[in-house]
Design a protein that fits this description.
It contains two helices and four strands; from the N terminus they run βαβαββ. The protein is an alpha+beta fold. The chain has a four-stranded mixed β-sheet.
């Protein structure tokens, strides 16, 4: 099992420019979050999943649409936490109260 605490991603509504390219904010989030996830996995002694997974996301301090939180977050873990996001067979996203704005992610085999 991999457990990660990561920064809140920018809204999926703000990830593309009108020319359909990632915004600077989105690119920076992808890169920084991939590094954060990799560092936390190393600390936990965990390796990337190559078989189907379940992803549980707990969102703290976000009042927007929950479905907008996962696109960039999921992409940032692609090739780091799991080989490909097509391996996600179950995805649960829930809003939690309290604490600073963040996401906590739990990834397990499915």
């Amino acid at each position: 099992m991999i457990r990660l605490t990561l920064n809140m991603p920018p809204s999926a509504n703000k990830r593309l420019t009108q020319g359909h390219r990632l915004t600077t904010e989105a690119r920076e989030y992808l890169e920084n979050t991939a590094w954060d996830a990799q560092a936390q996995m190393l600390e936990q002694g965990e390796k990337m999943y190559t078989a189907p997974v379940q992803v549980i996301v707990m969102v703290y301090g976000w009042k927007g649409d929950l479905d907008n939180t996962f696109k960039l977050l999921g992409d940032s873990m692609n090739g780091v936490v799991y080989r490909d996001d097509k391996l996600i067979n179950r995805l649960v996203i829930e809003r939690r109260k309290g604490g600073e704005r963040r996401v906590e992610v739990e990834i397990t085999s499915y």
